[in-house]
Amino acid sequence: QLVESGGGLVQPGGSLTLSCTASGFDFEYSAMGWFRQAPGKEREEVSCISSRGGMTDYADSVKGRFAISRDNTKNTVYLQRNSLKTGETAVYYCARARNSRQCSEVASWGQGTQVTVSS
């Protein structure tokens, strides 16, 4: 089970950190990712972190502004987002990958958390 938290309303240029707490599987062996789906658009991968946190990957649109991290002692993955843009209003989903290194194949999804970027 994946449970996201931290969504809400934020002004353009603002910051917000999302959290995802996992249970029911060996968290330390799975890569974890964050995806988002904006209204009328397909779900896209935002960021991925390997099982031990040694490798991270970001979509070009968020490089330099977003940071993914994980705490395997707490079974939690985080996504810190800075300099948010209006076009980044979306539902953000936490995902468990099928392997330990990348998020191209997803084994399970969280329920999603709404993030609205608006003044």
Question: Can you tell me about this structure?
Answer:
Strands 2, 4, 5, 6, 9, 10 and 11 form a 7-stranded mixed beta sheet that branches. Strands 1-3-8-7 form a 4-stranded antiparallel beta sheet, with no helix packed on it. It contains no helices and 11 strands. Strand 4 and strand 5 (44-49) form a beta hairpin. By secondary structure, the protein is mainly beta. It starts with a strand and ends with a strand. It is 0% helix and 49% strand.
Q: What keywords describe this structure?
A:
119 residues, mainly beta, seven-stranded mixed beta sheet, four-stranded antiparallel beta sheet, globular
- The secondary-structure class comes to mainly beta
Globally, the shape reads: globular
User: Alpha-carbon distance between the termini?
Assistant: 34 Å
Poorly predicted spans: none
Main beta sheet strand tally, sense and closure: 7 strands, mixed
Strand tally is 11
Mean model confidence by pLDDT: 95
Strand % is over 45%
Work out the helicity level: under 10%
Q: What is the succession of H and E elements? A: EEEEEEEEEEE
Radius of gyration: 13 Å
Short structural description:
Helix content is 0%, strand content 49%.
Write the layout of secondary structure elements.
Elements: E1 2-5, E2 8-10, E3 16-22, E4 32-37, E5 44-49, E6 56-58, E7 66-71, E8 76-81, E9 90-97, E10 106-109, E11 113-117
